[in-house]
Specification:
This protein has 19 helices and twelve strands. It is of the alpha/beta class and 587 residues long. The strands form three sheets. Strands 3-4-6-5-7-8-9-12 form an eight-stranded mixed β-sheet. Strands 1-2 form a two-stranded antiparallel ribbon. Strands 10-11 form a two-stranded antiparallel sheet.
């Protein structure tokens, strides 16, 4: 397989052949049914008896068996051709995407897949920031080689599968009822085998899990529209959560997968507690999407999955076309059902606030639950079940990929992108921002934060002037004690075995702060207090909030009609009007 062969391939001919065999198989099935009902069964039920009748019935039954075997044989040819054709389309899309990137970068591609480029200029040789063309050329060569290899493999596998039918035609095995039954049973077993049956060429031809969102987006756009629709309908679980796919495609695939997951969980009798919570959550999301139907802004289901405690993301407004995009990460006690309820409301309210601030700009507001948020029952030594940063690090990796996908699928000029984290979700955003490569955000908003793992706002990669913090005075989570302080408090004495999490020290830490003050008032459980002057971010005005834990969830309730300007300020930041934010002194 070489570049011109795959680049210029016309899989439509294979699709045409598959359709022709499908039509033939349908017509032959009708012919076999007519024979079975009009001849074989009619003779059997005619009342004719005797040796001649027995001989005739045996002969007719043999013919019926041959027709049945041929019917099963013909029915299997079209899927083989169609799967091979789809595999070629997918490989061709990968190749064409790589060739487009090579052309845009000034690389030359040989027919055998080799990649070359002009030697660097004198200026490039002395510029430490000059593009690494050798590295880029190697990447392009590998992508081209992968596409060629996949196409050659699909060609080989398809040929081998078709060869079975030519052999059957030559030997007569295709007319043997016993062979047909054996192969049918084998196909059924393969279909239900959790360890897999024959290789799925289409699934294997999709971008692997390490492909960047930009590569995924380029591959998808290189596919014909009818192939995109075939993939969405046949492989919704594999496509709906792929970062880099367009919003509309993800929404379509995820709605299909959501219905399938609800049906699957509803049919099972042995649901665990978390399975029941996920089923409740998925039904809540179904109801939410139905309620949103036909309303403005339109809603899109960007993520759905049953991993861990459940995964979901709902957008209000299309992130691919919006001028301003915000992706909100919830924290403590968030379950997937909240994505059809309170967190969806928060995303919708934030969209409204940004829209009211500047109606001339389009907005997309997303609630994203792509990780397992800590679960807690009130303020107790058991609260914040995860003591360390494991969940935030895992969530940060997923959130980074999600934001990169939003960048890759956006149409036209890049959107103004805001990352927003609340509670433990702000720690997750902070961990994402500090990963290699950072996050492709223009602004970061942290509300009710127990810290980000950073000591300075400048460590979050967007510049300290673009980090914004809302911290209610009565919010106990924004007053979490540091590890060292917790050790000195009675509630923190057994932190290693008794507490098991940072919020376990909230009550004692908050009381201790009010009575005697912190030893270091600017150090929280997860690093520097984002609301402190030392952190270096912009602190925006929020109300003190009600006394107790209720203030931790009060940030979306504060608008023009009450003390504090939390929601209005977040809308200003999201819409790119940070210069109009009402400020508040740092701690």
């Amino acid at each position: 397989m070489d570049v011109p062969t795959l680049r210029d391939a016309d899989p439509d001919r294979l699709f045409g052949a598959a359709d022709a065999y499908g039509t033939l198989a349908t017509a032959f099935a009708q012919h076999a049914d007519s024979w079975r009902e009009g001849v074989d069964n009619r003779v059997k039920n005619s009342g004719w008896t005797g040796d001649a009748a027995d001989g005739a019935q045996q002969s007719l039954s043999r013919t019926t068996g041959k027709l049945t075997a041929a019917q099963l044989e013909l029915a299997r040819i079209a899927p083989v051709l169609r799967e091979g054709a789809e595999a070629f389309v997918l490989a061709r899309a990968k190749l064409r995407a790589a060739l487009a990137d090579a052309s845009a970068g000034g690389f030359q591609v040989a027919d055998d897949g080799g990649v070359s480029w002009p030697p660097p200029s004198a200026a490039e040789r002395h510029d430490p920031d000059a593009p690494n063309r050798a590295g880029r050329g190697t990447e392009l060569r590998d992508r081209i080689a992968e596409a060629l290899t996949e196409a050659a493999h699909a060609d080989q596998v398809t040929a081998e599968r078709l060869r079975q039918y030519t052999t059957d035609a030559r030997t007569g095995a295709g007319l043997d009822p016993g062979t047909a039954a054996m192969r049918l049973n084998s196909a059924v077993l393969d279909a239900v085998n959790p360890f897999g049956g024959p290789e799925d060429l289409v699934r294997a031809g999709m971008p692997d899990k390490d492909a960047s969102p930009t590569q995924v987006n380029a591959w998808w756009k290189a596919l014909p529209a009818d192939e995109q629709q075939r993939l969405i309908k046949e492989y919704p679980a594999e496509l709906g959560n792929r970062d880099g796919l367009p919003t509309v495609a993800r929404d379509q695939a995820n709605r299909i997968n959501l219905d399938r997951m609800v049906d699957d969980l509803s049919s099972r009798q042995d649901l665990s507690d978390w399975d029941r919570k996920k089923l409740e959550g998925f039904r809540s999301i179904q109801n939410r999407l139905r309620e949103d139907q036909g309303k403005q802004p339109p809603s899109y289901l960007l993520v759905i999955g049953d991993q861990g405690q459940g995964r979901a993301a709902i957008a209000y407004g299309n992130p691919d076309t919006a001028d301003d995009v915000v992706a909100y990460v919830p924290g403590l006690n968030t379950e997937v059902k909240n994505m059809g309820g309170g967190d969806a409301n928060r995303a919708r309210d934030l969209w409204q606030s940004a829209h009211d601030t500047d109606p001339s700009r389009s907005t997309a507001s997303i609630a994203w639950l792509g990780y397992d948020a800590p679960q807690a029952k009130g303020i107790s030594p058991d609260a914040f079940a995860v003591a360390g940063d494991k969940r935030a690090k895992q969530g940060g990796e997923a959130y980074q990929g999600f934001l990169q996908g939003l960048r890759a699928s956006h149409e036209g000029a890049p959107a103004h992108l805001t990352a927003l984290g609340h509670s433990y979700g702000s720690f997750t955003v902070g961990q994402a921002a500090q990963r290699p490569g950072g996050i492709p955000a223009d602004d970061i908003i942290l509300v009710g934060s127990p810290g980000t793992g950073a000591q300075q706002a400048s460590q979050l990669g967007v510049g300290a002037d673009h980090v914004w913090v809302g911290a209610a005075e009565h919010d106990p989570v924004s007053h979490l004690p540091s590890h060292d302080e917790a050790k000195g408090m009675g509630i923190g004495a057994g932190i290693g075995g008794l507490v098991g999490g940072p919020l376990g020290a909230v009550a004692g830490g908050f009381i201790g702060d009010r009575i005697g003050g912190h030893g270091d008032p600017h150090e929280l459980w997860f690093g520097q207090d984002p609301a402190s002057t030392e952190f270096g971010a912009h602190r925006f005005d929020v109300a003190d909030g009600p006394l107790g834990f209720a203030s931790h969830s009060d940030y979306w309730n504060q608008g023009e009609g009450r003390d504090g300007h939390s929601l209005r300020n977040m809308g200003l930041i999201v819409s790119g009007h940070g210069d109009r934010v009402f400020g508040q002194e740092g701690r």
